[in-house]
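ingest -> fold -> write
write: protein_1
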Amino acid sequence: MPGLLGGTFDPPHYGHIALAEAAMKELGLDRIMFIPAHMPPHKNSAQVSSKSNRLAMLRLALEDHPAFEISDIEFERAGPSYTIDTIRRLKKRCPGEEFVFLLGTDNVAEMEGWYQPERIFDEIIVAAVNRPGFAPEGRFVSMIRYFDMPPLDISSTMIRQKIKARRSVAGLLPPKVEKYIIENDLYKNNG
């Protein structure tokens, strides 16, 4: 059974990899499909790196993980990337396949503002990783499976801010991703 991990991955980092590894172990998943968002509805698209840069960084981040794959399904359509639409399209492509949608407990309450969030639970199993300092909240709490992972205080926002401030990001993301960011002069003018 595959896990689905969505996000902007701008940039991908060790927190994403640790979450995917923990989900495989704790939930008995056979692989993880990373799904970069085309146009995240909750973010300003002008602040998100290009599709080509995000896909290139994700390929570099995951190249040593044979059980991790990338789906560019959200880039196949115009407009915002809604989770329910992506799930339905994946299920149509892979009939009979059971998927587990992965997120952090900090995102459980945010689901209230998502497009048709209740429909997600009709279509798929939802599992959330427990994150220190975040207790799941909202009407979907009891509908979600929870799992643990080693705590890592890493976010893409933090990495972008450090790069903009010309501070080291060593140890936060794979070295090949850091090298790509430097070579392509990413994140120096945005946070």
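write: protein_2
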Amino acid sequence: MTVEIKAPTFPESIADGTVAAWRKAPGQTVARDEVLAEIETDKVVLEVVAPADGTLKEILKPEGTSVLSEETIAIFVEGAAAQATEPRKASASRANPADIAAAKPQKAAPGPAARKLAEEMSVNLRRVDGSGRDGRVTKDDVKRAARGQVRVEARPSEALPVPANPTPQPEIAPAERAERRVPMTRLRASIARRLVEAQHNAAMLTTFNEVDMSAVTALRQRYKDEFERRHNGTRLGFMSFFVRAAVEALKRFPAVNASIDGTDVVYHGYYDIGVAVSTDRGLVVPVVRDADALSLAQIEDQIREFGTKARDNKLSIEDMSGGTFTISNGGVFGSLLSTPILNPPQTAILGMHKIQERPVAMDGQIVIRPMMYLAVSYDHRLIDGQEAVRFLVTIKDLLEEPARIMLDL
């Protein structure tokens, strides 16, 4: 039976998508739920899977083509896979080795991250042996192949003897001056567009402070092992403290948790905290919903799950929809200070940075403390400077005395 393969249903916030890759070729047999294609939207990469065992008959939308929600992208024939395998089983006893080799399933197609890296490093993926599941080529495989190509090119004379009177060869331009032009991915283009809109449409300012992380660091050091045992392997990180501190501060300053809709101000009675996560495709912001009702362990579990899904390109549109406030942690990359950009339509964002031991004055003495710079960027159209400063000071106070978070002080 012939079936139309359609693009996924996009939410109202996404108008269309782009066919990023076809994982199967026309005429190739596939099993139920095998990935046929990847469709990239402004937020996530969506997978299109086979509805049943069968054969991909025809591709209607090649790679790079824009598609609308539920638009037909391919023609699929159900049942062909099972029919194709029966003759092979009947004749397996008299098949020669070449036939058996040809009948083996093809290795899984490389993912978007590996393909992107291969383009950047000029690696031919057809010549790379994959070490991933089902023979899939990974980023590490691409890197190893790139290093191998460099070694081969560096010693071309080892393979053949040099003639007595070699013919003069034309000079080759240094590889350092080579250029390549590649189109932006939809996610990167969406990030660029939203950041420019945030700069143009908001009166954005940033206020800074610093926090002594001694108390949180000591608390983690003292209870990390017991916490991990009690919560089935969940590790106690810093982010859960910042999420809880941000929620408590947002309760005291509702405007920071609000958004602007035209000439209206929308005050949110809930606390959905976006946590910026860096991926190979760009920065994504999955949302921890109802963070005020979650324990530290539950927050850590959600953030860990988001990180895993982001690395595997498994984040859904629902994971990244909404959000009333965002936290971005540039400290994991070594950043000491930055000015985070708003995530519209939110009116504020908190920037975390690297924890670094520094000399500070306390009670008339110079002491060494693990210090972190904090930054809050805010939309001055709604939030006054004094309100933003007091909001950031509240987060600072809660982190320097984390017992206040637990006691709601």
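write: annotation protein_2
The chain has three domains: 1-105, 107-155, 205-407.
Confidence is low (pLDDT under 50) at residues 80-105, 150-165.
pipeline exit 0
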